[in-house]
Amino acid sequence: xxxxxxxxxxxxxxxxxxxxxxxxxxxxxxxxxxxxxxxxxxxxxxxxxxxxxxxxxxxxxxxxxxxxxxxxxxxxxxxxxxxxxxxxxxxxxxxxxxxxxxxxxxxxxxxxxxxxxxxxxxxxxxxxxxxxxxxxxxxxxxxxxxxxxxxx
Length: 152
What we know:
Elements: E1 3-9, H1 14-25, E2 30-35, H2 47-59, E3 65-70, H3 74-80, E4 88-90, H4 94-102, E5 108-112, H5 118-129, H6 140-151
Parallel strand pairs: 1-2, 1-3, 3-5, 4-5
Helix pairs in contact: 1-5, 2-3, 4-5
């Protein structure tokens, strides 16, 4: 099943967002890439607005996953996690990227342009696309616990 991906970030993550968007668009595992901003490196739109817009698309079922880039990856993760039903993580290493999906069924991967090199970011995004959550895994009950808390 090809993934519907939303990508976004602020001006501190603009250059990586552009490069990673092109990578996603050329990957056969991706059906569509929707860019929710920012439009250029001078755009002062704050990262919470972009992150929430991306997360809302997932929450509404309009996208499967999101890739968000800011300076550190931390702010966009915090903002995306404010949207009900969203599990966003910041990850800059292969193991964390894999476990974010396998253990936590995270739909949003966040990275920092000021923290990780572009070539490593590209490798991590490719790995992320290939990881799928197993609803029969031992982690499923833990994800259900997170979702149950959120619905209270």
